[in-house]
Amino acid sequence: MPTTVNAYIATAADAPLEPATVERRDPKPHDVVIDIAYAGICHSDIHTARGEWGRTAFPVVPGHEIAGIVSAVGAEVTRYSVGDRVGVGCFVDSCRECEPCKAGDEQYCERGMTGTYNAVDRDGEPTHGGYSTGIVVDENYVCGIPEGIGLDEAAPLLCAGITLYSPLRHWNAGPGKKVAIVGLGGLGHMGVKIAHAMGAEVTVLSQSLKKMEDGLRLGADHYYATSDPDTFTNLRNEFDLIINTVSANLPMQTYLGMLALNGTLVELGLPEHPIEVPAFAVAANRRSFAGSMIGGIAETQEMLNFCAEHGIGSEIEVIGADKINEAYDRVVASDVRYRFVIDTATL
């Protein structure tokens, strides 16, 4: 018989999230049953719950930054045991047969990965996410959370952490590399921590200097305000890698102008309007404009191990379930430093 768990659910784009219950399937042979301890609030949760991306299948339980404890396993599970600390990120399945899946890039599954929420699983049932007290996930899409990271500060690593780790690793951030992080928010603060731990020289490019003290504390070597036009003049041809974490339409000519020869600007933000990339700004210094999206399961595990080794967790504010709707408004207003995490014991 399916198990009923407590949850917070979005029923319509214009309605606040509310308490409810959802059913979780009985564990199949390779399934892991997880008692969720904490769930991070990602801005994509808000876009989905408020119907801002135009494809929400209500009702839906958001949440794809999940940390908890294994409470049961299927008969053929080999990776995890009862009592293990585990996490679940943005997807819970993929086709497993295409080239990206075989290469460990399941996030780029050619048939489309199965989202942790607002998707349909192999049995034709809607998926529901981490704003709940329990979830059942195939062991191949679960990651182990090493000791040394609290489950609360680990939860956002399953999205925010891997979203920054993947491009930093792919474009070889490290000693001798100058890396700029655009925006010091839920994503950007993780980029600063991880790039610093990788050994890169890290610069924050933020609209103002109001978070400068935080940025330097988190590991930035330099901090500049993009509202100051001198910033773009003084930093011309400066960086090997720029990672943009903000979902705004930026003047790409000026940002691309800060790339050194063979430098790359990686777009993580998803702005409302198409991005204009001036050809000359790219061609002039053999620059590249690229994008990136989360990471595969193996890379996510690698990221968690890296964060544990370097003492990295997300900067969080833990809230009870009754504060979720207020937290949504605060995220939209950029009033959080730097990630809300729900204590699911309050559901």
UniProtKB/TrEMBL annotation:
InterPro entries named among the record's database cross-references: ADH-like_C, ADH-like_N, ADH_Zn_CS, CAD-like, ER, GroES-like_sf, NAD(P)-bd_dom_sf
Bilayer-crossing regions: none
Leading EC class: oxidoreductase
Domain of life, per lineage: Bacteria
Record CDD domains: CAD1 (cd05283)
Reactions listed under catalytic activity: a primary alcohol + NADP(+) = an aldehyde + NADPH + H(+)
Domain Enoyl reductase (ER), first and last residues per copy: 10-342
SMART domains noted in UniProt: PKS_ER
Named cofactor requirement(s): Zn(2+)
Molecular function via GO: oxidoreductase activity
SUPFAM superfamilies from the UniProt entry: GroES-like (SSF50129), NAD(P)-binding Rossmann-fold domains (SSF51735)
EC number(s) per entry: 1.1.1.2
Sorted UniProt keywords: Metal-binding, Oxidoreductase, Zinc
Entries under Gene3D superfamilies matching the protein: Medium-chain alcohol dehydrogenases, catalytic domain, NAD(P)-binding Rossmann-like Domain
PANTHER family to which the protein is assigned, alphabetical: ALDEHYDE REDUCTASE
Family of this protein: Belongs to the zinc-containing alcohol dehydrogenase family.
Protein name, UniProt field: alcohol dehydrogenase (NADP(+))
